[in-house]
């Protein structure tokens, strides 16, 4: 079975993907600098699967260390999660984001080229779409200029990978445009463990419910949506993890660079998420309505037909599942991996 290098594999989506890879029989080498994660996530992946992976602590900007990873392990393909993802922080320290996400990705593909490894799955984001597009968003719609530096790094890396694949037919690259990953593995053993105050809706909701934060601020209730609050396409992290396995399979038989949306195709509002969370978990989430957050769009959800048809992938989990699983992880690990 193939040997997969997973950059950023100790993180939220990476750890869930490592678990699915191991369960499917792949060998896994994780390369992560642990700047936003804990190695404990990988210990738990090993105990959940009963299988071992190789962990190497390192930075994707370190070309010497990357070369030795490829020299010491017979890598067949790379799944590239490593990067920084905090939208607000990316506005404060743009160079840090350009360096980690853009320069780091360039270092990685250079090392891949030196090692003659040409299969890559890249974590992109729905944020690359032009804001003028009307949902459901499909992959043929134009990309735009993301309103923040984090999104900008995703767009730039997508574009440079597209150009790279045009220059050399051996490259086979999947750009997975994630919508809003939430949820956790059903065991409640691994999940999202944000440092500091969460930027994203789901960890904020669970931290209010568990008593770590006083109340949720809902950013705007005057959008042109079902109830005035923002609408997004929430996707269970296990479904998202499995999309990477499907993309790996697809890339074994195809060359070039292609984008796929990874979402459920269903939009849910912030109030629907909060209310459903309360219903399925039997807990209250205190909230207030706050002003709109700068850079937010009213509605964003996927047309996921391309992924379903071409990757042979189907999302299995609904919003109730996502919210139950997020809550189970939060309850079992009120302080994330720092217990
Ligand atoms: P995460 O922060 O949990 O995981 C990222 C991992 O990369 C962490 O373990 C971190 O330590 C590691 N890392 C960061 N910089 C590194 C570097 N220079 N060298 C080596 N390792 C490094 O984030 P996540 O939510 O699992 O996201 C994974 C990927 O998916 C990221 O590229 C992110 O931008 C992208 N993405 C995430 C979302 C989301 O909402 N979570 C949405 C769209 C795209
Ligand atoms: N949101 C909110 N309060 C929060 C965090 C997010 O009301 O504390 C809203 C946000 O305005 C958006 C939705 O929840 O409509 C999802 O936001 P998130 O940051 O999770 O993901 P985004 O789609 O912005 O990447």
From TrEMBL:
Entry cofactors = NAD(+)
Tell me which domain of life the UniProt entry assigns to the organism this sequence originates from: Bacteria
**Residue ranges of domain NAD-dependent epimerase/dehydratase in the record:** 4-263
Per UniProt, the enzyme's principal EC class comes to: isomerase
A single GO BP term for this record reads: galactose metabolic process
User: What EC number(s) would the UniProt record show?
Assistant: 5.1.3.2
Keywords attached to this entry: Carbohydrate metabolism, Galactose metabolism, Isomerase, NAD
Q: Which GO terms describe its molecular function?
A: UDP-glucose 4-epimerase activity
Q: So what family is this one in? A: Belongs to the NAD(P)-dependent epimerase/dehydratase family.
**Oligomer status and interactors:** Homodimer.
Q: Which reaction does it catalyse?
A: UDP-alpha-D-glucose = UDP-alpha-D-galactose
Cellular component terms per the entry's GO annotation: cytosol
Tagged with keyword NAD: yes
Which InterPro entries did the record assign? Epimerase_deHydtase, NAD(P)-bd_dom_sf, UDP_G4E
Pathway membership, UniProt = Carbohydrate metabolism; galactose metabolism
* Stated name of the protein: UDP-glucose 4-epimerase
Q: Does the keyword NAD apply?
A: yes
């Amino acid at each position: 079975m193939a040997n997969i290098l997973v950059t950023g594999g100790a993180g939220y989506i990476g750890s869930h993907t490592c678990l699915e890879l191991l369960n499917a029989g792949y060998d896994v080498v994780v390369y992560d600098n642990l700047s936003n994660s804990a190695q404990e996530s990988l210990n738990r992946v090993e105990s959940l699967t009963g299988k071992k992976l190789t962990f190497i602590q390192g930075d994707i900007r370190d070309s010497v260390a990357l070369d030795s990873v490829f020299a010491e392990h017979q890598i067949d393909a790379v799944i590239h999660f490593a990067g920084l993802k905090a939208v607000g922080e990316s506005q404060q320290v743009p160079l840090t984001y350009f360096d980690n996400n853009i320069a780091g990705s360039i270092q990685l593909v250079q090392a891949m080229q030196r090692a003659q490894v040409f299969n890559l799955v890249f974590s992109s984001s729905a944020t690359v779409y032009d804001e003028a597009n009307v949902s459901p968003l499909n992959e043929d719609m134009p990309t735009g200029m993301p309103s923040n530096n984090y999104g900008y790094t995703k767009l730039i890396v997508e574009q440079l990978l597209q150009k790279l694949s045009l220059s050399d037919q051996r490259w086979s690259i999947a750009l997975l445009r994630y919508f809003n990953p939430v949820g956790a593995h059903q065991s409640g053993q691994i999940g999202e463990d944000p440092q500091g105050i969460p930027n994203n809706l789901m960890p904020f909701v669970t931290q209010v419910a568990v008593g770590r934060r006083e109340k949720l601020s809902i950013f705007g209730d005057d959008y042109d949506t079902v109830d005035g609050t923002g609408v997004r396409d929430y996707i269970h992290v296990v479904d998202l993890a499995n999309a990477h396995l499907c993309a790996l399979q697809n890339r074994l038989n195809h060359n070039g660079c292609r984008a796929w949306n990874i979402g459920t195709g269903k939009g849910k509002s912030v109030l629907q998420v909060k209310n459903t969370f309360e219903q399925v978990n039997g807990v209250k989430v205190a909230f207030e309505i706050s002003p709109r957050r700068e850079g937010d769009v009213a509605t964003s959800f996927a047309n996921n037909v391309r992924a379903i048809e071409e990757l042979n992938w189907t999302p299995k989990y609904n919003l109730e599942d996502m919210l139950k699983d997020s809550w189970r992880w939060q309850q079992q690990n009120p302080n994330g991996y720092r217990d």
